[in-house]
Fold each of these.
Amino acid sequence: MKIFIVGGAGYIGSHMVKVAHKANHEVITLDNLSTGYQDSVLYGEFEFCDILDSDRLNGLFVQHQPDAVMHFSAYSLVGESITEPYKYYKNNVVGTLNLLKVMVDNSCKKFIFSSSAAIFGDPIYTPINEEHPTRPINPYGKSKLMVEEILKDFDIAYGLKYISFRYFNAAGRDPEGELNERHDPETHLLPIIMQAANGQRKSVSIYGTDYDSFDGTCIRDYIHVNDLADAHLKGLDYLNDNSVQSAEFNLGNGHGFSVMEVIQKVKEITNKDFKVLEEGRRVGDPSVLVASDSKAKEKLDIQLLYPGLDEIIKTLM
């Protein structure tokens, strides 16, 4: 298939480009390079484009006529979304709405959306399944949930079929070493810890040690970025079956690890010690986010290549 990978110059998007190319799809990356890097797009074509630019988007759809779109083009920093909600609603909601309208205008009716576990807010129960109430506690999560609601309406009105993948914590990197995380500033826990283990940072900070967990630190579910990419390809296969309906899936590994556990695991695997600082909580961080992956396994036949924290960490070494 010919796939537009919107946001394909970013961390998850660039891994998606490589995995889709290796699966013999024709990939075209659309990115405004606000947080991505063009040299991370190793395969297929690259088109500079901002999803807020409807005219540019329409021209690219007319030119390339893609069969499907995968959307990775959201701003995703929880803290920043609280201090700059306009930025998040404009890009994540208005930009996505522009993209969907252009898709419909050009009869492109298959869409895979990178949603987030942030739509659930503070969980009522764990592991979190797809029926869990959606109660986001920050603008980032709210922007993702707004798009999910828009997608339901576009399906009913225009026949646009979609999958929303609610990511938990994407982690790891390309095992062949061609791709890496390049966030500036880096906010993801595992690469920060690895930087400390490699001597690139003087310390690692734990934000909150009084959460409702066994050791007081936040618990998160980590899924390898290549497993996310593989799930997207299986989602595309799912949408190609004309008998199926649009759907939402949680993507995680079904197991949670506390911040302190992750730190200790990196120290153990790398055999490196480093300073750990305890600081206050960050606004908008739930205590526990762990996925139920039962629906994805049943409907999409998801089989994780990197099911454990050890395997994920080793791809970062």
Amino acid sequence: MGQRTRKTTDTPHRRIRLGISGCLLGEKVRYDGADKRDGYITGTLARFFELVPVCPEVAIGLGVPRPPIRLVGSSTAPHAVGIVNPDLDVTDKLAAYGRRTARQLDDISGYILKSKSPSCGMERVKVYTRRGGLAGSGRGIYAAALMSASPLLPVEEEGHLGDPDLRENFLERVFAYRRWQEMTTSGLTAARLIEFHTTHKLTLMAHNVDAYRRLGRLVAGANRRTAKDLSARYIRGFMQALAQPTTPKRHANVLMHAMGYLKKQLDAENKAELLELIDAYRLGQAPRIVPLTLLRHYFRRFPDPYVACQVYLNPGPEEIKLYG
């Protein structure tokens, strides 16, 4: 039986676009005229993605250098006001620019924000009282508006990219969301929706088995008339599932599930070796790439049409290079 191909991953001519806080690329757009250039972003991610820089504070006319701003008021609905001049309130301008950016950059597949920024911070941004005391923490005004307007968009702060698990989770969501964008651009049909779900079954199982089953039931009812309505519910649940951190135990379960498709092809010695490597990964004694590489080797020797279409075991070349 021939191997299935994944049409949704074919991106030979255009790099995936990511929005990014301009200061992280070395643009001197900070309030003090400095930058916050990030070596991993400029040295690694820039090789694989088209990075689209944005500085909302400059975009709304605050200039460089400029008086600094901070969040003031309640954690849930703070205002961005001047530190030196509290009468300067740019809350509405930053929020409006966040919504406008979401509309204009509707083809990006992810966004990297500058942490702790009163405009771009994704979480844990300091919020002060009117008198200058610490009131709590919240989200930057621009970031909040952007994320509200584009709730499916994978978003992360540069500080989190230093954590291997958080970095891999963000990149996994970016690639998955790009596949969804390409699929919908080429024309959404019930068949394509079902295919998308099929190719991501192992990926979903690694994050949330219940979501995998729930989304499977959803697409099972798709037809020509209902595909569009179901797709909105599907991708919302899909991206929410991928945002949930996975664990070595869940990955090990998926690896063993995949191994089940080789039960007739492998002898006892090869099975024992593969099980030993999966268990070593689960216990933290080996990286996941070790059993994953051996599984890929066996499936090249013994192709299976279901496994051949799985993103989890057969990611694109950029995915392999970035997180293997």
Amino acid sequence: MPPTNAPELTRAVDSVALARFADDLALLCDPAEARVLVAVSGGPDSLALLLLTHALLGERCVAATVDHGLRPEAAEEAAWVADLCAARGIDHAVLRGPLPERTGHTANLSARARALRYELLQAHADAVGATQIATAHHADDQVETLIMRLNRGAGVGGLAGVRATSGRVIRPLLGWRRAELAAVVTAAGIVAVEDPSNVSDRFDRARLRKHLAAIDWIDPSRVAASAAALADAEEAIGWMVRQLGTDRIAAEGDSLLLDPSDLPFELVRRLVELCVRQIDPTAEIRGSALVRMVKALESGETAMLGDVAAVALSPAAWRFRKAPPRRLL
């Protein structure tokens, strides 16, 4: 349920916190020109982001709350955020839409809700002329994400964690702790909304959060720095793959030919993925399936991924093409 308190709207954001936030935002956009759409759920993290962004940008800060329709309390919480924004003179909208249909193996409820959230935010950003969309991911989120992905066997890309930028989505709070953001909200005289999913043992992240709370030797700021270094490494590998793709991938009729010779496995894996995506942009590519395809081709076998068939003509020539339609029995 949303809080029933009347927040003291005249309290200013602490000048030290605001100066710190200004430096963080300046790394991701030009604060003098930006019009930022802040995604606000009503929780302490997103409220802190809203307070800091509005204090810095004034009317160039706009806000939106996505009501996924998954909890009966969500509509009331969105209305509470709308009232808070109205009292502070912040342009705010409540965004709603149908959840995407479940497709493939990984499109669970959380993933579908996330897809809807970003789709609605992108559309609203277009409507209000926002140059950036800001979300409230922070250092503790980064720790949780990194550990969860480690447990799933993620590669460099996955271990890069939550990125500071993704298109026009920015995350200026990745260097902030959860407790620091809660302090910003408390200092403003606001009692934030508490989402029960954040403490429910039904969710992996909530269970992990409880365990991490009992560990005092993990430094989220250092974990965030490691994630940032991995993000830099991922960017470098991506740049190298694009360069190699120009030299190693050639079109031949309706096929692509890849020369994987003398390349490290990770670069070959990514070049194979590039070929598959060029032929079948809708292919659902899971890491394990991609590895199996590469291993099969290395062994001189044929392989299938999505609607793409691949065959090793020689160690230096792998052919990828659209697979013929399957016969119906």
Amino acid sequence: MENIKYLLWNNKGGVGKTFLTYMLSVEYAIKNPAEDVVVIDACPQSNVSEMLLGGNGIGEENLEKFRSNNMTIAGYIKDRYERSRSSKIGTETNYFSLVHTYNKHMPENLYLLPGDVDLDICSTIINYLGTAPERGAWKKSRWLLCDLIESFESRKGTNGRKQVFFIDCNPSFSNYTEMAVLAANRILVPCTADAASIRGIRNLFKLIYGVPYGPQELNDEVFLMFSTNARDAGLSLPLVHRFVQNKSRSNLADAAQAFKSHVQEIEELARHMKTQHPHLFTQDLFTQDLFTQGNGGEVLNVKDGNTLATIINHVGQPLTTLQQKKYRIYEQDTQANNSQIAPLVKDIMIVLNTL
């Protein structure tokens, strides 16, 4: 059976996808110690790498060591360009690191392919490889991340352990985002209750699948390039698995009318796309017994992390190990309360139960 590879993406920044990637991957690894969990950081900002490697300060230092040694996702692309442009270089598995080695707060079955700010520079390399005058050049250029993952799967697969991947990437649809899309087989769509996030979801369907939300949206050629190239190369695309509304209100009844209106619009968008294009979704999406939050069923809610996100960013430890106490962050005491921790843990566990 093929390993599950989740892409967390929305064509809109600020929807909490990196924090969600962190929480889901870490808590999944804790909950499933018999499986190997791998985080792929395909975002130039590399925030999920810094959190996993120890948080602000030590996490940044550890990540800089990986960058200096060229042992990041960008490092591999550069090495591949210099050493073997059309085939694997044979050391792909070396680019993955066991997170617990660098951060003792982390579970021992969690691996990381570190991010790198040089990914934006590598986009030039990917574009060059993709336009080379040789057959299958576009596919080869977008298959670099798949080569890395396949090598990890081949090495670790001999122990019989299931492997689950979580891929974080930035909101732009760059060529390295295209690599991430092709490496995944499921998509988790983080979103927030605002108009820009909703436009980002619509763009997701246009950019990845070449599918507009409605007849009023033109099938502009720019939106069809990726899906056309992928189809021509005989590549399969990941299926949408869940919509996860981040930063939700704990009490929707008390929310502003604009917020409630956007929540409803996201649910309607999800239902519409599932009805019109069911082949783009995993089969169990909208199975009613999975949804217990009373919001209509189409979108899972995750409470706004607020202070907890700040603490986790700084200390780099799992959500479920946070205690009700003060944490020292940038020379100031920041209080974590059970009234914040418990609802967020509950929401994350509901999402985990749908994976």
